[in-house]
Amino acid sequence: MSALFDSGVVYAALDRRDAWHRRAVRLIAQLRRPPRLPASTLAEVSYLAHTMLGVEVELAFITDISNGTFVVEELTDDDVARAAEVMAEYPDVGFVDASIVATAERLRITAMATIDRRHFASIRPRHTAAFTLLP
After folding, report:
1. CATH fold of 3-134, please?
2. Rounded to whole angstroms, what are the CA distances from 44 to 7, 86, 124?
């Protein structure tokens, strides 16, 4: 199974005190491939890790990316344009979430690893009736 990871579930995997921590870690462990993160999530996860958990956790996260523990999916110009369309259609969805939708559509990924059920359950992607939300 291929899934795209939202910032919240990645942060939950880093923070042992997070209510979603065990589910996030279990999901990552079950994957056959490294988790895929849209590039737009990196700054968000880094910022949260640094401010909430400390520079050591942020550095460990960045090191994991450089070691291939996570795969970063770069945003294309078309992804940014599609993200703007998603934001216009769903005004309460910000750029990071909208860019995740655009990346999922481009890669034809239907599974979304997220704790943000409200946003991702309401969005109707172009390539499938709805996202399968994990964990």
Report:
1. Rossmann fold (3.40.50)
2. 7, 19, 24
